[in-house]
TrEMBL record:
Domain Phage integrase SAM-like span(s) in chain numbering: 110-184
One GO MF term: DNA binding
Domain of life: Bacteria
Name of the protein described by the UniProt record: Recombinase
Arm DNA-binding domain span: 11-95
Keywords, comma-separated and alphabetical: DNA-binding
Organism the protein comes from: Flavobacterium salmonis
């Protein structure tokens, strides 16, 4: 999804305790909504050029900070581009969370499938029959084998699921597992 505006700024913020070393911050603005965060570094405010948003000087510490700021700029732009290409809504908060590693834990398909089956097993006789649980268990086993066969992985994140995966799984059930339409349709229906 394209954003109508995007901005990235680096600046110094005065610490609560009087000091020549100020805290370096970055601010991301998307569609007029601003979020900012510290980069966990301090810098002498007399050696900072706000117009260029960089440390001033040819000393190694200035070069190091400027290199870090350039690297951070690159990382932020990569995250923004990845969000754009994957169709995710781009917000300043999401970008900062990704930069700082505060992303939500990845939910795995087979783990959730097993949780579902465990809950169903606990509800046997209370709305679910043994036959229904057996069909879900067989489907999970087929899905496990398919993920190993097709993707060479032990599990798959929900974020990686797409229509192509579902169609490939249906094809796998019909060809490799030789499942009939009655077995196939309930295993792959999305609604």
């Amino acid at each position: 999804m394209l954003e109508s505006s995007f901005g990235l700024r680096f600046f110094l913020k005065r610490p609560k305790i009087e000091s020549r070393e100020w805290i370096v911050y970055f601010r991301i603005t998307v569609d007029g909504i601003r979020k900012e965060s510290s980069i966990k570094r301090k810098w002498d405010n007399t050696r900072w050029d706000q117009r260029f948003e960089r440390a001033v000087g040819s000393k190694e510490d200035a070069k190091s900070l400027n290199f870090f700021l350039d690297s951070l700029t690159l990382k932020i732009n990569e995250i923004k581009t990845e969000m754009m290409y994957s169709g995710k809504t781009i917000t300043a908060e999401k970008i900062i969370d990704e930069v700082l590693g505060r992303t939500a834990p990845k939910i795995k398909v087979l783990e959730e499938f097993q949780k579902h089956n465990n809950e169903m097993e606990a509800l046997l006789g209370k709305g679910y029959s043994k036959g229904t649980l057996d069909r879900f268990t067989i489907t999970k086993n087929h899905l496990t084998a398919f993920i190993k066969f097709k993707l060479k992985k032990q599990d798959l994140e929900f974020a990686d699921l797409n229509l192509e995966f579902v169609k490939d799984f249906e094809f796998y059930l019909r060809t490799v597992r030789d499942c009939s339409n009655n077995t196939n349709k309930p295993s792959t229906e999305l609604d």
